[in-house]
């Protein structure tokens, strides 16, 4: 099943009389269960493409389809509904709510989705076990390491059983051991749950985990290659 499709997508930013062509006709198809890295230098269009796929922005032209739905011309509320139903996000700076515990941060999307207390409790317990942090359920973010915070962020992204998880530089603020832990968790969850991961990175430590690598340069895809076997394990 095709989870993401972009067709001739462009994104032009205008500031005064200055135009910046962030994307210049991007065609991309992501199938269910893929573990794909978007790579390229700063300014290549990686984050812009993630924002369009994540319904956080709209293309200047072209079409974006997510989980079988054309999201190109949806209004703000409709795009928010797509995000709530189908997309999980993992951000560079974790974006956890500092006053909530790990448990409560993971629970938040389930609360917003109207799940019952028993459903929430069962799902959060399962997720804490998946990220190997069942003993940190009642810890606030400032009581967790950076790697632990990012693993909580991954669990929160998975809470609603999304079709797609988008991660923008998920290890950029982590040292090598913590970055490896986060990528190990993401890889394992991809294999065990089948959720599709699309992540933007310039970190070689992260790229080696990908099973497909899409390279952007100056707003265009210049290379798209499958990796037969991950360098850190199939």
UniProtKB/TrEMBL annotation:
ABC transporter domain: residues covered: 4-234
Domain of life: Bacteria
Pfam family, one: ABC_tran
GO cellular component, one term: plasma membrane
Single GO MF descriptor: ATP binding
Keywords, alphabetical: ATP-binding, Nucleotide-binding, Transport
UniProt xrefs under InterPro entries: AAA+_ATPase, ABC_transporter-like_ATP-bd, ABC_transporter-like_CS, ABC_transpr_LolD-like, MacB-like_ATP-bd, P-loop_NTPase
SMART domains (alphabetical): AAA
Record protein name field: ABC transporter
Organism: Leptolinea tardivitalis
